[in-house]
UniProtKB/TrEMBL annotation:
InterPro entries membership: AAA+_ATPase, ABC_transporter-like_ATP-bd, ABC_transporter-like_CS, ABC_transporter_ATP-bind, P-loop_NTPase
Presence of the UniProt keyword Glycoprotein in the record: no
SUPFAM superfamilies hit by this protein: P-loop containing nucleoside triphosphate hydrolases
GO function term, MF aspect, one: ATP hydrolysis activity
Source organism: Microbispora bryophytorum
Name of the protein in question: ABC transporter
Gene3D superfamilies: P-loop containing nucleotide triphosphate hydrolases
Pfam family, one: ABC_tran
ABC transporter domain mapped to chain residues: 2-233
Keywords: ATP-binding, Nucleotide-binding, Transport
Length: 249
């Protein structure tokens, strides 16, 4: 992202959500984005997803300037209840994710669908409908659908926010596992500093008034991460403290 700005124009007023934002994300990086409510996190993600056009500056994905949803990217948003198709089973929803993505090689779609459902721990629920699942399971299905399209870039906005604490910890580990397996690049927006530090190699803090970046912190915590071990590391606590001060003060 180079000198990106986004201004929302409604009939009554203009809101500049982001300005002078430059951010270079390397292939295979896991970046989390934090910052106060209203600082432009979701805007940043919608711009990256190509769902919203920039007002100034430019965004390139794999060297190509984007002017619509990039082929390599998939998104998972917070509202899982609305993101799955209720008339399709879990497997049907994941298969739907494969639709335009690519032609499968040997084995066809069924094998891929099973693979991604197993990856998120939903192999047993393939034939159920979304409304027969818990919130955490629905969100896992949405993640499986995104992963099944074999994106290079996975964009997630508060994707685990509506889920209970234990399921959330599980989902974090499912995502880390998938990230490691698939060689993905992940940009993950969250308001939860602990989650941001736990997941990422790099935590980006947006300026509260949307003027570019407030901080760009490379944590360097060891991998693989563990819910108990990682969260007790002195480096984890250090980054957590530093970032909390940044967003709260
Ligand atoms: N469609 C829109 N039309 C007008 N203004 C908008 C629109 N979407 C967002 N904004 C404004 O842009 C700013 C940034 O919003 P954004 O949703 O990106 O923030 P956020 O960091 O994701 O906040 P939160 O943590 O609450 O989700 C806010 O001032 C918001 O009111
Ligand atoms: Mg938001």
């Amino acid at each position: 992202m180079e000198d990106v700005a986004k201004t929302y124009r409604t009939r009554r007023r203009e809101v500049t959500a982001l300005r002078e934002l430059s951010l270079d994300i390397g292939a295979g990086e896991f970046v989390t984005v934090v910052g106060r409510s209203g600082c432009g996190k979701s805007t940043l993600l919608r711009l990256l997803s190509g769902l919203l056009p920039v007002s100034a500056g430019e965004i390139r994905v794999a060297g190509q300037r984007i002017d619509g949803p990039p082929r390599q990217a998939r998104c998972v948003f917070q509202d899982y209840a609305q993101s799955l198709l209720p008339w399709k089973t879990v497997a049907g929803n994941v298969r739907f994710g494969l639709r335009h993505a690519y032609e499968p090689a040997e084995g066809g779609h069924d094998e891929l669908v099973a693979h991604y459902l197993d990856l998120v721990g939903l192999g047993h629920a393939a034939d159920r409908y979304p409304w027969e699942l818990s919130g955490g399971m629905q969100q896992r299905a949405a993640i499986a659908r995104a992963l099944a399209a074999r994106p290079q870039l996975l964009l997630m906005d508060e994707a685990f926010s509506g889920v209970d604490a234990l399921s959330r910890a599980k989902l974090q580990d499912v995502l880390l596992h998938a990230w490691a397996e698939e060689g993905l690049t992940v940009v993950f927006v969250t308001h939860d500093i602990d989650e941001a530090v736990y997941l990422a190699d790099r935590v980006v803090v947006l300026h509260p008034e949307g003027h570019g970046l407030l901080a760009d912190v490379r944590t360097g915590l060891p991998r693989p991460r563990g819910q108990v071990v990682t969260r007790e590391l002195p480096e984890f606590l250090h980054h957590r403290r530093e970032l909390l001060h940044m967003v709260l003060d």
